[in-house]
Amino acid sequence: MHWISKSGLFILAGLSIPGFSTPAMAEDASEVIVTALRQPQAIEQVASSITVLDKAAIDAAQALTVSDLLIRTPGISFTRNGGYGTATSIRIRGAEADQTVLVIDGVKLADPSSTGGGYNFATLMTGDIDRIEILRGPQSILWGSQAIGGVVNVVTARAQRPIEGSFDIDAGSRDTVSARAALGGRQGALDWQVAGSRFTTQGISAISPRYGAKEKDGYSNSTLNGRLGVALAPGVSVDMRGYYAKGRTDIDSAGTVPDSPEYSQTEEWIGYAGLNADLFGGALHNRLSFSRSETIRDNINPSRKQRPLSFAAKGETNRYEYQGVLTIGQGWTATFGAEREEQRMRTASPPNSLASYATIRGSADIDSLYAQLNVEPLAGLTLNGGVRYDHHSTFGGNTVFGAGAAWALAKDSTILRASYGEGFKAPTLYQLYSDYGNMALVPEKSHGWDAGIEQHLFDHGLILSATWFDRSTDNLITYNGCPTTNRPPLCYAPGTTMPRLGYYANVQRSEAHGLELAGVAHVGRLTLDGNYSWVSAEDRSPGLNYGNQLARRPRHAANGTLRYDWTFGLSTAVAVRWSGKALDAARTSATVAPFVNDAYTLVDLRAEMPVLDKLTLFGRVENLFDDYYETARRYGQLGRSIHAGLRARF
Which residues belong to the signal peptide in this entry (predicted)? Predict the structure, then answer.
């Protein structure tokens, strides 16, 4: 009976095949404006596969973290090593987690001291976010190194009235409490916004109790962000933004005794200052900016009496940018720019003694030029083409190309999309200089394309879409563990005879292709939406691993939501997420078969009800049937959770 109940809900919630863009979020698809392409652009003119989540969609999902929103969209899988706050990896179309670029209010976020140089989505809460845009496929022309899988563009709230504010509070299972508040205004030459949030939870054991763990691993997170815009003169303005986050996560040991008093502390700082100036009657928009981001990570183990600090890392990125957007004529727009990115890293693993220890340092600079031309030769047809040149201080120069087309065949009816892009990702500072580093590494390079159709029927009552994608990546960098006997040369620290646990190396090739189906249907007060993704991401290196699906990437995944809006204001929904089985490691041996993370189905119930003009009560049950599942071997996930809260907008 238990199985029948879950299956019935899954079938009910997945009746439609939901859309890869989300025009359902607006009354008219043409009203959806995308900013992830470095300039505002109507969604029907975007050549890449895209999903847009507006504030209404974010509120309706009731998700506490951005990763919990992303995994319900097409082509995305994730790995989380336990409950909230633990290491969280987002993969777009089977690409590596560090091949996704995160942008917050125009600032690229990355941690140069992390293994892959990417962003850990564990600390990114929904908080003051007003909009999320997900661009799939290579986006390196505009966003540079790392954007092989795609781009997640996050836009925080910006005041539209002289004074406005909001707050949310959410509380539930495991002593979980999330609270945020924001205040802002826009009047005359000034607009401003400040917001803060606090999240705490008792959590679950990061290592599953099935593997001997017992203690709960809690997590807390505090954030503060603000922005200030000043119009100095007609067409001239200054824009300043700042973001700060601090989190603490309890850690479990990977050893035979998993419970540990150790915890991790993470601090993130982001600062941005930009000058905007329009010339030639607004035909040329210029932006000159500087941004800086820092990520500080410390692991502290109180059981180490002499030196509790067991790991320390700091990553810094300075970015200098110029961007111009030139309107050449009706339907002709050029976007071009120059960037300099300076990356710095230091890491250390102090011993449990007062003995001296080494601090590993690394740095790299990337200078870039890019240009992209958008042309509308016919009504409804948008073409783009671009080129980017990066010069890496270690690996020299590299040039990538990209092109795309979007064709709205009939107004608000049929949209065809196709795009091609190339990617380039240099080895990270950690992969080069850490204890597992390899100075012989070469950059990863990729090329890929996609093509899709979006069909609107019955005056937007039914929207269906389908997208096929294909991507090849050469020189993929992976971590290789070392054997205890017959050790190859790379299993010794460079220039020494001291053995090490592993090293980074380039595998020859990986290939990914797949299909994304999506759609949304409105039937009176009933809305059904969902998506299905088939992602084949395989190791194509010669040898034993040839043809293996890459680690922790399910070939099949689906999401569905059934929502009903009652006449008296109540809104109720059932949401289903299904993930197919996935290999825990792509690399095998002749004698040991890879561990498989089983398929799982999660069912959530949601409800919300306005009780006053500006106040809404909401509640949800997550993982209704308390299913056990793992996205990474030995790491447990949240069981049944019950939450309730309120939000106010004034």
Answer: 1-26
